[in-house]
């Protein structure tokens, strides 16, 4: 091999290693910013055979309907707690902040936060459904059968109890 070809080969190898290293670092950085979407039933029961239930401390987004009669506001602060339900169960959500204007019982919401002990989501952001004509596709798919039974029929598992 002549020196010119050798230098081109080394340059190509260095560029290839740089591209691989850069791609790896970008994907690793983005991995920590991913919040997976779950419905209340998926948090309680898991997504299926291949998908496990989320772990305590995991960042996630939960979507469902606000259970009528479940909204409780702390009169001394901005803390609010409510239940989000779907056809398979209900999950408690706590949020410290100002809720969107369209937030109300019986409406669809998406809460983004961290799963805590006892299947309680500590939300850092709450988004309310903004229009009757539009629902994000992932929320629409996850909530197709939300209105099959009344909200009063749901039982939220007590903290510390778990089903296998």
Describe this structure in words.
With 164 residues, the chain is of the alpha+beta class. The chain has two domains: 1-34; 36-153, Nucleic acid-binding proteins (OB fold (Dihydrolipoamide Acetyltransferase, E2P)). Helices cover 25% and strands 29% of the residues. The chain contains three helices and seven strands; from the N terminus they run αβαββββββα. The chain has helices at 3-31, 40-45, 137-142, and strands at 36-38, 59-66, 72-73, 79-86, 89-96, 108-116, 120-128. Strands 2-4-5-7-6 form a five-stranded mixed β-barrel. Strand 1, helix 2 (40-45) and strand 2 (59-66) form a beta-alpha-beta unit. It is elongated and about 80 Å long. The termini are far apart. The mean pLDDT is 81. Residues 129-150 have a biased composition (Basic and acidic residues). Heme binds at residues 130, 134. Residues 129-164 are annotated as: Disordered. The chain crosses the membrane at residues 9-30.
């Amino acid at each position: 091999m002549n020196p010119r070809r050798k230098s081109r080969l080394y340059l190509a190898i260095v560029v290839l290693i740089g591209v691989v290293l850069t791609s790896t670092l970008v994907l690793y950085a983005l991995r920590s910013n991913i919040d997976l979407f779950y419905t209340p039933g998926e948090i309680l029961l898991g997504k299926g055979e291949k998908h496990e239930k989320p772990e305590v401390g995991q960042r996630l987004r939960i979507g469902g309907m606000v259970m009528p009669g479940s909204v409780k506001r702390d009169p001394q602060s901005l803390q609010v707690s409510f239940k989000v339900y779907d056809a398979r169960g209900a999950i408690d959500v706590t949020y410290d902040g100002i809720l969107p204007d369209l937030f109300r019982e019986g409406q669809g919401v998406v809460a983004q936060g961290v799963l805590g002990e006892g299947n309680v989501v500590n939300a850092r952001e709450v988004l309310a459904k903004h229009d009757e004509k539009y629902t994000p596709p992932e929320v629409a798919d996850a909530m197709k059968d939300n209105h099959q039974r009344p909200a009063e029929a749901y039982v939220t598992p007590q903290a510390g109890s778990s089903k296998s």
